[in-house]
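Open question from group meeting: does this chain pack into something compact, or does most of it stay loose? Before anyone orders reagents, we agreed to write out a predicted structure and look at it together. Recording both the input and the output here so the notebook holds the full record.
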Amino acid sequence: MTSPAAVGRLSLRPLDPLSDAGLLHRWVTHPKAAYWMMQNATLVDVERAYMDIAADEHHHALLGLHDGEPAFLMEHYDPVHRELAGLYEPLPGDVGMHFLVAPTDRPVHGFTRAVITAVMAHLFADPAVRRVVVEPDVGNKAVHALNEAVGFVPEREIRKPEKTALLSFCTRERFTAATGVTA
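Structure tokens returned:
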């Protein structure tokens, strides 16, 4: 998957839990990644977490590249089996999603929005995906604004073991209407 975004070329590749662990560890323990909830994780904790994802048929992790360099993380999961199991009534074609943009000393204007747009386009490239589901922390106002910018509609707050989350949905049609991207 590639995206000719104004910020540069974005692409995704499968995550290698062992060779990418050092990079991911720096990202998920950075203060800007507080909502990722891995602030105190060790390198071994990160390796194990992503090895578990790699072995899980219902959860997948991809490394996002910006002009060929690692720059973001994307996870997608089946909400019937992971994250949201039992917390809402899933519909056929639902897929859950998380994304994390790497911390940088040289921010690029519009980069995070380009990333979420590329992530959503990647998910909707699968014709079986009809709706993307997210459950960010209710306090993460920045991601709520990004989600709405690409077509997500908040439904309600839900209580998860680790947080109170804002359950939100985005259909293929809402994504296209919000971004102009046809997936």
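Observations to bring back to the group:
The chain has five helices and eight strands.
The two ends are 11 Å apart (CA to CA).
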